[in-house]
Amino acid sequence: MKLNYHHLYYFWQVARSGHLTRTAEALHVSQSALSHQIRQLEERLGQKLFLREGRTLRLTEAGRLAFDYAEAIFRQGEELTALFAEGGHAHREVIRVGAVATLSRNFQEEFLRPLLDREDLELSLQSGGLDDLLRRLSAHRLDVVLANQSVRGDDQHPWRSQRLARQPVSIIGATRLGPLAPFPEGLAGRGLIVPGPESSVRQAFDGLCELHRLSPTIIAEVDDMALMRLLARDTGHLAVMPPVVVRDELRVGSLSDFGALPGVFEEFYAITIRRRFESPLLKRLLNQSSEALLPGRRE
Amino acid sequence: MKLNYHHLYYFWQVARSGHLTRTAEALHVSQSALSHQIRQLEERLGQKLFLREGRTLRLTEAGRLAFDYAEAIFRQGEELTALFAEGGHAHREVIRVGAVATLSRNFQEEFLRPLLDREDLELSLQSGGLDDLLRRLSAHRLDVVLANQSVRGDDQHPWRSQRLARQPVSIIGATRLGPLAPFPEGLAGRGLIVPGPESSVRQAFDGLCELHRLSPTIIAEVDDMALMRLLARDTGHLAVMPPVVVRDELRVGSLSDFGALPGVFEEFYAITIRRRFESPLLKRLLNQSSEALLPGRRE
DNA sequence: TGATTCGTTCTTTTTAAACGAACGATACCT
DNA sequence: AGGTATCGTTCGTTTAAAAAGAACGAATCA
Predict the structure, then answer these.
(1) Which residue from A3, A90, A276 is facing B16, i.e. has the nearest CB?
(2) Which of A8, B63, B107, B123 reaches 20 to 30 Å from A43, CA-CA?
(3) Domains held by chain B: number
(4) Span B128-147, average pLDDT
C-alpha cells in the first residue's frame, strides 16, 4: 500500500495547470493515460482529489492537501536533478556545520581549523538558535551542530551528542580593577555578569555560590559569549566565563583572569544524527577534535 | 530527462540500510531488480552513487547528496500517505494563517473572527518573523500571511499582497498625563515611543516631524505592538500607534487618544501565493475582510 | 440545435520492471 | 591456503503496468 510517485507527479502537473488535456499534451501522453493514472492515485489514497464538475476539474480539500505535499516533494526533486545536471563534474565534499549563535567564536574557529585550508572541501557554516539548528539537522540540511549543551535523542530524532571540549570557567575582569582576592572573597561588593539561567555554567556557578553562602550582585545575564566579552572589557564588572573566550585580551593584558571556579565548566558538544554512511571527513574531524580539545588543553 | 522517483526510492532504501540483499528481501523484490534500478538512476543522474568496494557498498559524495534529498522527499511522501490513511474520512477544510509576531492582536482577531465559529473548519495560526513566514508560504505550508508591509513578488516567489486595512495612527498616552495640545504642539518636552525605523508608520511619522521642524525625544523604538501597548500604559511616555491596538484601554479610560497624525497610517496586508485553485473560503475571507476593514472602519 | 470541447471508459499494444540462473569477487572459517 | 558462504552484477526471459486509440457522454457555445 505504498504511494506511487509517478501517479502523484501526474496529479501534480494536472493540478497546477487545471486542465487535463493541455497537461497531457505538455507531458506527451494521451489524456486517457493521465485520467487513468490519476484515478488510480485516488483509489490508492482512498479519496477523490478532483471534483469533476461537467468538463472542468476542481480540487477537493483532500486534493489541495495532496497538492501542497506534491509541490514540496517535486520541488526538491527538481532541485536535486538541477544539482546533478549542472555539476556533471564530481561533487566537492561538503560539510555543513550549524553553530549555536551564542557560542564562543574562538571555539568555533578551533573546531573548523582543520577544514579551512582544504581546497577540495566546501564548508557551509550556519548560525541560529539550537531548536532551529536541530530541525535542520533532522532534515539532513546540516551535518553537525555545535552547541554548549547536549541533547537527548529519541526515536523520532536520533540525535547523538558528543562532548568535544570542557573549558574551565573563571572570574574575568578588566586588569585596571587591580589585584583581586581569589574566589570566593574577591566577589564581595562587585557586580557580576553571568550566563543565562538555562546554561549549565550558570547552574554550576549558582551551586558553587550556595555552597559558599554567597549571593553576588547580578548585573546582567548574557548568553552570547561575544557580547559577554565586550561587556567584560568595557564595563567595570566581573564576568563569569571561560578564559578561552577572551584569549586575545588576556594575552594583551587588557583583561585579567582572577581565578578558575572549581567544578564549573563550559562544555561543548557536537550533535550529529545517526546515519548509516557517515562522512569519513566528519568522522575524522569529530574524533580529532575531541582528542585535541578534551581536558586541559592549553589555549 | 526526468528523475524517476521509483528508482530514487529504491536507492533511498538501499542507502539507509547499506545492504542490497537485505533491502531486496524487505521490499520483496529480487536483488537483481534492485541493482538494475539503482544503476539506471546513476545513469540518469550521470554519476555513481555507490562505490562498489568488493561486496560492500559505500556512498559516494554525490550519493550522500542524493540521499539527503531522497530523505526529505520520501519523508514528505510518508507524511502524506499517513495523513490519508488515518483520516479515511473526508478532510475538514483547513486554513493556515501566518501572522507577523509584532502585529496587533486585535487586528489578527478581527481578521480571524469569521472563521472562529465555524465547526467544519480547522484553523492553524502560526507566528513568526516575516522572512520565516514567507518561506513557509512559498513551501505551501501556509495559506496566507498577515503583515504590516507589502512584499513584491517575483518569478521565484509569486507573492501577492492585498491591503486589508488602513488604520489611522495617533499620539497615545496615559490619561493621567492630563489634556494635551494636538500635534504638533503637544509633543514639546515629551518622551516618545515609536515604531522601529523599518516600519512604514515610522517613516511617515519622521516625514511629518520634518515638515513641522520637530525633533522629538525618542525614548524607545518598539516593533511589537503588544509591547508598545504595555509601555504606553505603564510609563509616562507618549506612543505613536494606531488607536485600535489599545481599543480596550481607550474605552476604559486608562489611555487617551491625543489626536490622529495626518497622513500617517498603519497598513495591514494579506500576502498570498498565486495558485490555480484557491480555497474558496480563503478567497471569500480576503474579500470580505478588505471590504469590512478598509478605510474609516470604526473600532 | 448541432458542433465542439473535455474528461471517462474500454480494449489492445507497448514499455518497463521483475525474475531467476550464472558469474565474479570478497570475506570468512578451519 | 583452500574451501565455502555471501554479496553484488549481468544476462535472457517473463510478467505486470502504463500508454495509446477509439467510442462514449456531458457540458459549453454559437
Answers:
(1) A276
(2) B123
(3) 3
(4) 90
